[in-house]
Amino acid sequence: MHVLDFEKPVAELESKIDELRHLSGDGPLPIADEVGRLQDKVNRQLVALYSKLTPAQKVQVARHPDRPRSVDYIRTLITDFFPLAGDRTFGEDLALIGGLGRLHGQACVVLGQERGHDTESRLKHNFGMAKPEGYRKAQRLMHLAERFGLPVVALIDTAGAFPGVEAEARGQAEAIARSLETCLALTVPIVACVIGEGGSGGAIALATGDRVLMSEHAIYSVISPEGCASILWRDSGKAAEAASALGLTAQDLNRFGIIDTIVPEPLGGAHRNPESAMAAVGAALSEALEPLLAMDSRTLVAARRAKYLAMGRKGLT
Predict the structure, then answer these.
(1) Domain count of the chain?
(2) 191 shares its domain with 244
(3) DSSP 285-303
(4) What CA–CA distance (Å, rounded) separates 79 from 144?
(5) CATH code, domain with 146
(6) How far apart are CA 220 and CA 278, in angstroms?
């Protein structure tokens, strides 16, 4: 497992535990007490570390390469998943995975921004940075959900929309704006969860939902800390300072009223226990969807629009 800088003391203890277990072999464990003592120390250190993470450390955790990705959530939580491809205009964008499936038995349309786990898959999925065709595919699937009366579940995990010349040439800004418009006008429930990094318009294009959830150690911001530091101070080395100023943690955003629910992560973050983290997100998504499914479409759309207008008014006061 990849070890973050601030986790090194914990990693050293875990290495000692592994050595002791290896030395004990398959026979009796005369050193079981020592292993138990060290494991308790590991747990105490993880509690101490993760209860007071700085915003910059939260950024590291949110980007951890071992964190579960959208494909993992879909594989674990969504039964009968049937992928749908293409925007019917230009082509397929693998940065965005979409399709039909069931979340705890509830039929739904699923959208997931996929970053990839290794070099090959990251290149394949363009690091989760969608191009215009990705957002147009999302719009197509949201309209499909509306046609068949299905709720939309969106998994957010991207550094932002792809900034390349070809994306701009194909109308990146318009595609993102249309996605926002589609989310706001959708007559079926839409619930989004930021499972890793929610970056800029690339994230909000799919996260403008009736309920927005966020994993405990995820981040969500208008710009990356590195980008912010480069603009404000012309020094990306001040990213930690920028992270603190941006208010990008789940705790900050919940306090500001930008998100609705913080989904707890297992001790030491989702990368240490992906199965538990995914189960918690699945339960939270189902809980958020339940009251929305009982609302009529007119009330649903009015409440959604009021939610985001209220954020704008609050920002002006």
Answers:
(1) 2
(2) yes
(3) HHHHHHHHHTS-HHHHHHH
(4) 19
(5) 3.90.226.10
(6) 19
Residue pLDDT tens, the chain, 317 long:
688 888 888 878 777 777 776 666 555 556 666 777 777 787 888 888 898 999 999 999 999 999 999 999 999 999 999 999 999 999 999 999 999 999 999 999 999 999 999 999 999 999 999 999 999 999 999 999 999 999 999 999 999 999 999 999 999 999 999 999 999 999 999 999 999 999 989 999 999 999 999 999 999 999 999 999 999 999 988 999 999 999 999 999 999 999 999 999 999 999 999 999 999 999 999 999 999 999 999 999 999 999 999 887 765 45
Residue 311 and residue 241 share a domain: yes
Separation of alpha carbons 10 and 35, rounded Å: 14
Angstrom CA distances, 162 to 182, 201, 203, 216, 262, stand at: 20, 10, 11, 26, 27
Closest CA to 257 of 217, 224, 214, 293: 214
Tokens standing for 148? 């068949």
Structure tokens at 99: 């399709």
Show the domain range for 22.
5-52
| In a shared domain, residues 42 and 114 | no
Q: Are 236 and 229 in contact (CB under 8 A)?
A: yes
Q: Is the dihedral of CA 247, 251, 254, 258 positive or negative?
A: positive
93 and 46 in a common domain: no
Same-domain check for residues 113 and 71: yes
